[in-house]
Amino acid sequence: MGFPSVLARAPYSWVVAAFWLFWGAQPAQATCTTIDMRSSGGSMEGTMPMAQGSHGICYAYAGAGMADAWQRNQLSRPRTADALAALRPTSPAALAASTRAYARRSGATRTCSVGPGAACGWDDGLNGGNIEDTINFLRQPEPNGRACDHRQVFGVSEISYEYSRWEEDPTFASADPDPFLPPFMRRVRTTHARSGLGVGGTFSTGFASSASSSETDLYIPGRDSQYLTVLNEAWDEYQRRLREPLADATAIARAMSTRLEACLLEANVPDSLIPGDTVDGTNAVLRDIFSGTRTGTRVDFLARYFQNACQGQTFRISPTMPIPVVTDYRVSTGRHNETTMLNEIHTALERRNGMPVAISFCATALRNPSGVTLASTAIPGGHTGTAGGTSDGGTTQCQEASGGVATTPVEADGSDHVTLLIGRKQVGTRCMLLMRNSWGVSCERYLPDAGFECDEATGDFWVDESVLARVTYETIRMP
Amino acid sequence: MRPHFAATLLMLLFSPSARASDLVVAAADWRPRVYQILDGRDPFLFSRSAHAIVSAGCRRPDGSFACDAVRVLSRVRADKIKSVPGGADPGALVCLQQVQGTVVTGRPALLGAKGSRAANLPGGEASFCVLPDKSLVSTGSLDFHAHRNSRPR
Questions:
Q1: Domain-ending residue, one of A312, A334, A352
Q2: Within a domain: residue A116?
Q3: By CA distance, what is A459's nearest residue in B?
Q4: Which of A78, A118, A268, A454 has a CA that sits 20 to 30 A from residue A234's CA?
Q5: Residue B148, min C-alpha distance to chain A (Å)
């Protein structure tokens, strides 16, 4: 029996057909059930959004995020709050340094470039790199493969937390009445402090068990995010001094040790987290870091510094963590297929114990979705590609778009970026992907009118999958 | 937000000639927000419509704003940033390269007015730019306004 004759015999079948045509024309709706890896049991549960500041190590932030998600998925289920709290967050900065130093020791060549024909070696620091390299480093057997606790790098020597509770006070009259509370309720706050390594995230003080109280969160004071800058500047000065005539390498290393310690303190790095102590004008540990890398490179210096800074605070992530699958969707290689890309992303998100999916994309689209497009040929002279990686030899995949004509490489604003996708949801007819960026909790940078929906508590935001697919040129996911 | 304020803001937001400082002054949705930076709690003002988080001290009793944190919003430009490979926060680059600032990282403390639902949510890291007059502006604000100022007029 043919399709039309079915309709003729059963008029209500027109309704069925209309529904079939309507829903069938929107396949996204069928595949966009809500997924949020931050929710209970998810691989990003309790993870903390971070801010990379002015440092070009987005790849390490994404790699650390993936590794931390992998740690969570390895916990036996049901997971307990204690088990989650015991997991240590991976330091992106230390991971970037360790990965780069390991690659150098392994004989890898560095082909990155910051301009046409510019020489690029192991002395240009940590900017630009690949997620898969960081994951591969963490899989290496001892003595490699150790992650550093983020709190040891970004920590404080003294923490404070605020405990607050609501209590009834009939005599209390607020000058600024709160619409959510009866007028006789007031908040009583007590601030506590203790010394020791910062703990990060929410800290339980034990007060919450009191029936009439609610507990606030613990916030670790921030510090100058120029930590890496201070280290880089110290390395530059060390090398400059070594080139001076009649340079005494031993004396210079000794002088640099106290100078670096002073600069780190000035950058608000807590004394307790700086390797070694200055005794008689010398910090022996820092002096040895300088001396030990005198003939090395900046990468060696940074890796050795973090190795010392993280002493006693390193940990192994499961060596069974697989090497990520990297898929090329560049326009310049003829592999840009948005349907295939989105299918791959959704399939990865839908998996049981789903892991985040990293994407390399043109981040300009986050502020100006129509102002950027993928380049038809890799453009030399822009950012290094692959999220600032090493494989493109100093090219960008992103170029400005205006009236359909695109000729200028996007250099100015952190395009060629990599972030994690950690969920999805349906909004109307659109499928929105949940992105965790590494630019901190800052919804103010996005334009809601451009279709972004930002979570002000975390800075994570939902973005239309079609907007992302257009400017994404690589996916990195667990197999 | 009152209707006439909303209309003014919408007009300013999409008006290519409107300066960021106009946007800041016109915004009627400034709310208190506290971040923990270095060893202290820093009070800020946040406006969703002005796309800005600035030091609370920027606002005078008469409602006007006077500090570097607000002034720089009008002159930062995304097309003048010297790029760094590896997806650095554009706002942090603007801070270092265009306004002689220092980037510090903090954490959201208690958000907003007491009793608000967001007050006790756990927060992550957030970056701020410390200007020469010691006022602070979020790198997200610098990022947004740098892009807005770079759009063709």
A1: A312
A2: yes
A3: B124
A4: A118
A5: 9
A189 close to A164: Cβ distance less than 8 angstroms: yes
Look at A52 and B51 and tell me if their CB atoms are within 8 Å.
no
The H-assigned helical ranges of chain B are 3-14, 20-26, 68-71, 90-98, 139-150
Tell whether A78 is covered by a domain: yes
Chain A residues closer than 8 Å to B35 by CB: 222
Q: Would you list the DSSP string of A7-24?
A: HHH-TTHHHHHHHHHHHH
Using a CB-CB cut-off of 8 Å, the residues of chain B touching A179 are 115
Phi-psi region of A476 (alpha: psi -120 to 50; beta: other; left: phi over 0): beta
Residue whose structure tokens are 């800052």: A442
pLDDT digits (tens, 9 = 90+) for A367-397: 778 778 887 766 554 433 333 333 344 456 7
| Residue A457 and residue A382 in one domain | yes
| The residue count for chain A | 479
What confidence tens digit (pLDDT) does each residue in A250-307 have? 999 999 999 999 988 877 777 878 899 888 889 999 999 999 999 888 999 999 999 9
Burial class (CB in 10 A: 0-12, 13-18, 19+), A463: buried
Chain B residues with beta carbon closer than 8 angstroms to that of A127: 84-86, 88
Q: Which residues constitute the domain of residue A297?
A: 227-312
Let me know if A196 is exposed, middle or buried by CB neighbors in 10 A (0-12, 13-18, 19+). exposed
Nearest-angstrom CA–CA distance, A395 and A114: 9
